[in-house]
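DM from R.C. (forwarded with permission)

"hey, sorry to bug you on a friday — could you get me a structure for this? deadline for the figure draft is monday and I only need the backbone to look sensible"
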Amino acid sequence: MTNQKTARLASTSRTRCAECQNIKQRRARALQSGDRPGAEAATVAMGVHLRVTHP
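My reply, with the result:
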């Protein structure tokens, strides 16, 4: 049985919005440099962004 929401998401465009890309890159840089607080802040920022911008 396929979840309708999941099926709908799979069929949408794979292009990431500019802010999602920015936050993802910020988190990756923080992880690479060992900046755990920075990575955590980026994770929180992504969560807020997703809830507000991509409901």
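R.C.: lifesaver. The CA atoms of residues 11 and 50 lie 18 Å apart.
me: no worries. The first helix runs from residue 4 to 10.
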